Amino acid sequence: MVGRAWDWVRRKRPLVDCFFASPWLLVTAPGIYGGKGHIGPWEGAALIAGLLGPMALRRTLPRTTFAAVALVSFVQWAAGLDVVPANGAVLMGLYTVAAGPSFRWGLAALAVTVVGAAMATARYISDVDQFKYAFLMLAGMALGVWLLGLHMRTRRQYLRSLEERAERLERERETEVRIAMAAERARIARELHDVVAHNVSVIVVQADGAWYALEGDPARARRALEAISTTGRQALTEMRRLLGVLREGAEEAPSRAAASEPAEGAFAPQPGVDQLADLVEKVRAAGLPVEFDSEGTPPEMSQGRELTVFRIVQEALTNTLKHGGPHATARVRLRYGADALDIEVADDGRGAAAADDGRGHGLAGMRERVAVYGGHVRAGPRPGGGFEVVARIPLREEVRT
Question: Which residues form a coiled coil (predicted)?
């Protein structure tokens, strides 16, 4: 609500400036039209319009407004008209110029105001002592208004620099995230390439076996052909995902991200669910107690899905080692359902109190991997302490959303 009101005030500058100038009108008009002054009604109307009218453009055209008000005050002095409260508009103009971006213009406005104060004091006060007192008072007021304008100018510049710094840091953070996501896509693409290459190698071997067994052992040849069919469908599916990752990476990734990590052994099978036990043992050897549970019957999964499961568990346990603390323990739980696999990796470490330099992109990499298979990931501190990563990966193509 406050933000909307402030935006409205910024958009309606002339209206707001008229509002702030209205008190001068309220204290000037009764003195002119109340019969107590020596200024006629038409002269008073012209004087009020000349002094307060430019105030509507005080922040839009600060130097022009100050020059107009100073000129009207000079004409008033030359015509011998009495000083009115609306002459305080000179101080408002001085403040606006001093608070502007140019220090020299603010200093020039101060000089004009002090000279005007001396001229007005010399014309309307003949006593020397009163002249000194009045001049010092008016000059002190002008100096105080000028200093206030300088303070606001410095404060605005400081706030503007903070806003620019925050925007720059936000842009740098977004750039780092995009680079990290592009690097993760490149790594996923390389791993899926290895999976496809391995499947193609299996197809070639099975085809050779079927050829040799075609006449002597038809049943064996039939089994080889079935394996070729199954492996070929998996290879086609993984190839489609590979092309999707490459297209997305080509649209969004910087060129240097593709070379951010050397390729792992080409045509070599990637780790999967069967290697999770070895991963858990390595983490335990590193000093982190890990409990590993698996519920349900593991169905047949493509190597790409198994690789995704392995990488999620690996990244979650690595984060626990880095940020969980010296006494943390972890639990890895896999739940195989009819249509999806649920992965839960939780620890009882520092959780939200863990130090974060803002440069880790492992969670973004998890989301990239799971999104390839139409799944989702939720990661964050646990209510009772610690951190948890929960992922859900569809196991069938028709389940993908």
Answer: 152-186
